[in-house]
Amino acid sequence: MSGVFADLVGQGEAVDVLRRAAADAAAVLRAGRPDLAAQTDSADPPPTSGGDAAPISGGDPDPAPGGDSAPAAGSDPGQAGAAEPAEREPGAGMTHAWIFTGPPGSGRSVAARAFAAALQCEDGSGCGTCAGCHTTMAGTHADVRLVVPEGLSIGVNEMRALVLRAASTPSGGRWQVVVIEDADRLTEAAGNALLKAVEEPPPRTVFLLCAPSIHPDDISVTIRSRCRVVPLRQPAPAAVAEVLVRRDGVEPDVADWAAAAAQGHVGRARRLARDPQARTRREAVLAVPRQLTGVGAAIDAAAALIGAAEAEAAALVADTDAAERAALETALGAGGTGRRAASAFRGAAGQVKELERRQKSRATRAQRDALDRALVDLAGFYRDALTMALDAPVEPVHTDTAAVAEAGARKWDADGALRRLEAVLACRAAIEANVKPRIAVEAMMLALWKG
Ligand SMILES: [Zn+2]
Question: Cα of 84 to ligand 1 centre, how many Å?
Fold first, then answer.
């Protein structure tokens, strides 16, 4: 695969959808249609406000330069009820709001950026070489705005300003594209500001949101209902290894090992291939099955696993926390005088509190993520033991602990290996459901020991 979608690893179906959408978007431009209002997702209800199906543009409603005079938007009502893209009129593969979801490491933001580039591509293919593709991928395209919340959430003022700018006529004559990474970190007020824009889309504006899932915790139901969802899947190890070699210059045998060990997480595979600390942490996790010799050892192993996750998370967030704190202190007054500084100070206590709240929630999230990575590694080990007990003709996830897994397979049989694998998966599910990690992990370790 070449062009802007080349780094989207193992996502053939999503890439097909996005290519078709970009081609349809180009067709809309060529036809000089005024907007995309008729192409909201088929499952979505029509806008409820005022019963007016036509978009109410907050910005300049002029169509792109060069377009022949198009009929009014109201001339094609009822398209919202169309079913499959193939059955719709030309251009219907495109819509003005998208959500990219998928497991961590599947490439949500990579997909959103690539799609943004394809929308700005001169021939609508995402060729990767034209000025539109190139400047978008480089982050310098005038009509592509990228929002990457760095810890602090996207606040309502920032979102309002963004929405306002996004409503203007694209300077390049194609689309105004707004990419919001981690859309699950919008404040409620910012989410409402975004919702207004998504409900009443400016004629040439496209919103691309990235979120872990479409669960209401991640994205509000109302925003989701206005968006088309592009689910990304866990890529195959061979596809991950290929990109590590091609893009990151990793040696092929290391890439194969890391891709298998990372079980489809592209970023995790890259870290395992290049970061010795990540390898050390993984080895400590994979030593657990050999350490479970009794109740005391199981409890100790649980404490060690949680301690390691906390330490890893603390190291991950420490730099960002300090930088945010410093940035906020600067913004709140260091060197500031006059009316602006005074009014900034009035909101200071609230902002500091908000920052602390966010940092705490991010630390918790980082701990859960680190613990989950460890559990995924552990699950891989028992999965290896299970496949060996069954003589299944598949490659092990962890080639370096294959001998230990083989010994486990002989000792436990398939039943025992499956019970242990299920104990690890049950632990993940329990933590996801907000069971205290220590309780869930201790229960898992005891189950792994007893079998
Ligand atoms: Zn191009």
Answer: 27
Give residue 199 CA to ligand 1 midpoint distance, Å. 29
% residues pLDDT > 90 (the chain): 50
Mean pLDDT of the chain: 83
Residue 382 has pLDDT above 90, yes or no: yes
How many Å lie between the centroid of ligand 1 and the Cα of residue 122? 5
21 alpha carbon to ligand 1 midpoint, in Å? 14
Neighbours of 287 (CB within 10 A): 13
- How many A from CA of 171 to the centre of ligand 1? 17
Distance 67 CA to ligand 1 centre (A): 20
Residue type, 27: A
> 92-133 pLDDT, tens per residue?
789 999 999 987 778 899 999 999 999 999 999 999 999 999
Q: Cα–Cα distance between 206 and 143 in angstroms, integer?
A: 10
Question: Where are the alpha helices (H) located in 249-294, listed in sequence order?
Answer: 252-262, 266-274, 276-286, 288-291
Phi/psi-derived region of residue 298, left when phi > 0, alpha when psi is between -120 and 50, beta in every other case: alpha
- Whole-number Å distance, alpha carbon 14 to ligand 1 midpoint, is 19
Ligand 1 centroid distance, CA of 114 (Å) = 10
Beta-strand relationship, 205-210 and 144-147 = unpaired
Separation CA 236–CA 414 (nearest Å): 25
- Ligand 1 (ion): residues with CB under 5 Å are 121, 127, 130, 133
- Report CA(162)–ligand 1 centroid distance (Å): 25
Residue 181 has pLDDT above 50, yes or no: yes
Query: pLDDT by residue (tens digit) across 337-365?
Result: 555 555 555 667 788 888 888 788 778 87
pLDDT at site 247: 87
The rounded distance, in Å, linking the Cα atoms of 164 and 143 is 13
Q: 199-237 as b/e, with b when 16 or more CB fall inside 10 Å?
A: bbbbbbbbbbbbbbbbeeebbbeebbbbbbbbbbebbeb
Q: Contact 69/78 with Cβ under 8 angstroms?
A: no
Ramachandran region, residue 130 (left: φ > 0; alpha: ψ -120 to 50; beta: rest):
beta
Task: Determine phi and psi for 98, rounding to 5 degrees.
Answer: -135, 150
The answer to whether the CB of 333 falls within 8 A of the CB of 326 is no
CA of 88 to the centre of ligand 1 (A): 26
- Per-residue confidence at 330, pLDDT binned at 50, 70, 90? confident
Rounded distance from Cα 380 to ligand 1 centre (Å): 40
